[in-house]
Design goal:
Strand content: under 5%
Number of helices: 20
Structural class: mainly alpha
Radius of gyration: 22 Å
Largest sheet: none
Helix content: over 70%
Length: 461
């Protein structure tokens, strides 16, 4: 009854704009906390800050990996809105605890990974309300909105923190998070048609669809999906690690000020918006889906190598511009997967991709934190010291950022794997059979072999 009541609260018809607003508010609230997060991390874990940051993000990401297929599959059954509300609420729940109790803040942030999979539900929501030829553009718009939320929020957060203290920033972020929750509850319509939702909680449900490890086993049955998933894993692993520690790295190793970090984020965000809206749609039409993915991976490889060997601020700014161009990869991959997926399986498949990203969100930060730890790169001063001359600085002169160089190697592997993804998928290509969810209604006979078919029936190399 609660799920039905939540679905009925809405205004108008489901549109991509609803998904855009939800993503913007969620990540804008977290973007405000960029500067306060650095302070709280340093105060709570004065020793091994990079390592502890990696472990916290690692636990959160691993929990996301476990929960993403379940939430995606359930949203195919019970609708998107209730799960949007669930994911947004638990993703934003830790924010007010940053000033109340930092230890509880980091604990809840780690555990919130069980529900921090808004993107999988959002991409399924977008697939519900768009035609196939519109989907890549819509995904690019959602990804660009994520970038847009980070254009101004870190700068605003840094300014308010310097002028009025971190408490005001946390309060503002909490208010925006509450506004996002209320927006989902009161305004966002259900996108999944009534005829595609189950009318009863007692309807038979295949828990195998919600098992992340079962999803991974299914991936191996189809060469195309296997190649796509391996590409996502190898490319997003360093991206997740980079995102978790890069702002700390800029301040500690490259000596960026808080204002410079905010400006850097704004620049990358603005360029990412341009790349994911104008450039992405042009590339998808001109060179196709696969070539767009390859181009994005090429930009990412160059960006990580530049971060790895760069030791001067101007190098970071230049590499940041390249990083913005690499942001076209994930929306292009999501569109590719969506095009070969049955309409009533969008949540499950996007949940599978988000689950792989969640696994990367766990392994990437832990990997980066461990490599920083091995190379004795730690956050020891909150304020950068101009032109430091220390033995540690001399040791870092050859490869200032070893984790980024390691990440460049994994992206190179992703690029090699992506080359073998078929350039065109036939119209007959569809995801795993929907009989798993629909046939038990009319009969109780044994499942056929068709229930265990690969994710993409007709794809081939």
């Amino acid at each position: 009854m609660l799920i039905k009541h939540i679905r009925q609260r809405s205004i108008g018809r489901a549109r991509v704009a609803h998904a855009v607003v939800v993503i913007f508010l969620e990540f804008f609230s977290w973007g405000l906390l960029t500067t306060p997060m650095l302070t709280v991390l340093h105060e709570t874990f004065p020793q091994h800050t990079f390592l502890m940051n990696g472990l916290i993000q690692g636990v959160k990401g691993l929990l996301s990996f476990v929960s993403a297929p379940l939430i995606g599959a359930l949203s195919d059954v019970w609708g998107r809105k209730s799960f949007l509300l669930l994911t947004v609420f638990f993703t934003c729940a830790p924010i007010p605890l940053m000033r109340i109790s930092p230890w509880w803040f980091f604990a809840l942030m780690s555990v919130s990974g069980l529900f921090s999979v808004t993107f999988s539900v959002i991409f399924a929501y977008v697939a519900d309300v768009t035609e196939e030829h519109e989907r890549s553009t819509a995904y690019g718009l959602v990804s660009a909105t994520f970038a847009a939320s980070l254009v101004t929020s870190p700068a605003i957060g840094a300014f308010l923190s310097a002028q009025y203290g971190d408490s005001l920033v946390v309060l503002l972020a909490t208010i925006i998070a509450v506004a996002d929750i209320l927006f989902v509850l009161l305004v966002v319509p259900e996108s999944l048609p009534d005829k595609m939702r189950l009318s009863s909680w007692g309807f038979p449900f295949s828990w195998e669809q919600a098992d992340p490890f079962a999803s991974l086993r299914k991936v191996g049955k189809d060469s195309t999906v296997l190649l796509i998933c391996v590409t996502v894993f190898l490319s997003y692993l360093p991206e997740a690690g980079q995102y978790s520690s890069f702002f700390l790295y800029l301040g500690q190793v490259i000596n960026f000020s808080s204002q410079a970090i905010a400006g850097f984020i704004a620049m990358v965000g603005i360029l990412s918006i341009i790349a994911q809206t104008l450039l992405l749609s042009v590339l998808m039409k001109r060179i196709g889906n696969k070539s767009t993915v390859l181009l994005g991976l090429g930009f990412q490889l160059l960006q990580l190598a530049w971060y790895g060997f760069g030791s001067e601020p101007w190098m970071m700014w230049a590499a940041g511009a390249v990083a913005a161009m690499s942001s076209i990869t994930f929306p292009a991959v999501s569109a590719l997967v969506s095009h070969c997926t049955d309409h009533d399986q969008q949540g499950a498949v996007q949940g599978m991709i988000t689950g792989i990203r969640g696994l990367c969100n766990g392994l990437g930060p832990a990997m980066f934190g461990f490599i920083f730890f091995l190379f004795n790169v730690e956050l020891k001063e909150m304020s950068p010291v101009p032109n430091p001359v220390t033995p540690a600085a001399e040791e870092k002169s050859v490869i200032p950022g070893p984790p980024f160089l390691f990440g460049a190697c994994t992206v190179l592997l992703a690029l090699l794997v992506a080359v073998f993804i078929p350039a065109q998928l036939t119209p007959a290509v569809k995801t795993c059979s929907t009989r798993v969810m629909t046939e038990p209604v009319s009969g109780s006979g044994p499942a056929s072999d068709e229930d265990n078919e690969p994710l993409l029936q007709d794809s081939s190399l």
